[in-house]
Batch of 3 targets.
Target 1
Amino acid sequence: MSRFWIVDGHNVIFAIPPLQRLQVSGHREAARQGLLDALRRFAQKRNDKLLVVFDGGDPQWNQDAIREPLLEVVYSRRREGGADERIIREAKSLVQHGHRVTVVTNDVITLASVLPKDVDHLKVRPFWETYIEERVREASKRVEGDFSEVEKEMLARAATEESEQVGAKSIAVAVSSTRKRSAGKDALRERLRLKREKGRARHQRRFKRR
């Protein structure tokens, strides 16, 4: 039996601080895209289907609906009952078709409390920490010498850049040394020129005295 996840979109955004800051600062589209990108990676990793439901009073939002093999995004208008009613209807339908369903929301009063008994409920923070931030924890557990191909490439690139920096530094030192030698020669030639001019001036003064 496959697992189907239904996510209360705006509820999650307001429960995750980085997304919430984007939302309240007027960057609502960036907040939604940040959420959807994270959920898309989650769905692809588990090969589970996921439905994200947003409240959408603005007609143009409904044009942003997404339908992908593993991710579907819908915007439910208030006259249709809003996101809560849409989530309840979808959950009932999916359970009737034999799916295991989990609804992700912090709304335990008007939504979670009235979900069908066969539908699982998971609050936002446990869901986010367990499934979305899981990749970060896995990356931090990697031991030295256990590198992915991407990490190997990054190390090789860093080594190349370091070598280039050392080479550039050597060239800079050589150029600086050459300039210093050239400046020293110029100074010596100038001193010799001044000395010759002083010698000619003395010779001319002596000639006049005679």
Note: The chain has two domains: 3-140, 148-210.
Target 2
Amino acid sequence: MAQKHYNAAYLEDTATFLQGLKTYSYKPFLETGSGTIIDLGCGTGIDVLNLSRTLGNQVKVVGIDHDPALLEKGKQAAELGQNVDFICSEATGIPFDTESIEGLRAERLVQHLTQPDETISEARRVLKPGKPLVLVETDWASLVFYHGEITVQQKLIHYLTETKINNGYAARRLTQYLEHAGLQEIKTEIFPFTLKSLKEANDYLWIELILGEMKEKNYLSEQEHKAFVTGLKNADQNKYFACSINIVVVSSIK
């Protein structure tokens, strides 16, 4: 990616917006009575802490991420006595023994990977037989604005899926990755989210930032950029702004 499509503030903002979906993605782990669960690509550790509170102190929840600055935020937010840990590591080499963990979850990680099959195979390796693997991903190709020039929308989706994000179609490939790795009982759930203001679109999707980046890199002309952004602001001001995107949750069992 030319620039990360996230930072600590972005992860914290979207965590609030996606709380219902996050809670749903924890369901396969609720019967875990002991052992270790991994949140891979944990960012600031929001889900590590939430899972720990949900599952109790008999279950250790470990967050793994390659960014030490994000991990530090998780460590600072951890509560006294909470059974959590944070490890700095790449997703392609999970630092756990084979068949040693009770479950693994990864949210909005696969879209950033250049070798997703390798990471899914690693996730399968560390899982005990019969234990769950849950993947949560944004379907960037599902992004829709219900106003504005269609051609610009198509260019925006193409930029996100083919240029900005390493694996922009990850959400639509999750079942394929899981099948290739030999996971079983694969289940797909689709969660549509609607944004009703330009502020929400900027907070959760960084829309104006991305459009500006496209203009700077000549993916959009000055005229296309100005007309589309003006249209977004006009729709917002007149209270008919509407934007939607899908997030996919795929669960499976080793």
Note: The radius of gyration is 19 Å.
Target 3
Amino acid sequence: MIDKKPPLDKKDWIAGLDKGLRIIEAFNDAHPRLTASTASRRTGITRTATRRYLRTLEHLGYLESDGHFFWLTPKVPRLDWSYFDSARFPRAVQPHLQKPSLALGGAAYFAVMDENDVVFVARDGSNMVQNVGYVLGARIAANLAATGIAILSTYSAEDVDKWLVGRKFVPYSPFTATTEKAVRQLIDEGYALLEQQVAQRVRGIAVPVRAHSGKVVGAISVSLPMNNETTENAVSRALPLLREAEYALLVAF
């Protein structure tokens, strides 16, 4: 189910913080360097105010500038790592990823949904399997990752429709599902299976993870090289281990 946050009382709202974070989020792979005018258009903040925010973030060390363009500095990832260092989920999940990773010979993950993406907040796997999965902190569209599909499978039919409608699906491999119908077919109840959606010859299997309250808090998955193993055999090997971790995490949460 899609979380719906209640409105925040105006007396608790800090507009400057909201705008500063919107400025940082305006930078992405398609817009790594922004002028004040471009940042203004991308955020909806006036150009004058945008320049003040850009200059302040530059002063604080989160941006650099040549006087015209601005770009993010290596200080920005500190905001991410503060989450990894302090959040409950990554710490609670990490011990439960080792067993499926070692037993299956792949990389095991825990990911959470952030708007339209999943973010990988815990990972276990040797360097030998690094090339079949995601680095810690990676963000990817939910429809491209088994964890994302597993979480989407817990949505109501109405919420799935809302999530899918009007969405653009970018192909990352010849096998990527790029239509609403094709993505909808990936969403099923119980567990998720994705093959070659982002990288060829890579298979992802995932199950959603719930807290005692029944709320879905994320999903646990494994990324496996496909080699010559059949889909049925991979699922029969992986699913019991993922279910075991799922039940253990239900206790933890």
Note: Residues 79-252 form a domain with the Beta-Lactamase fold (CATH 3.30.450.40).
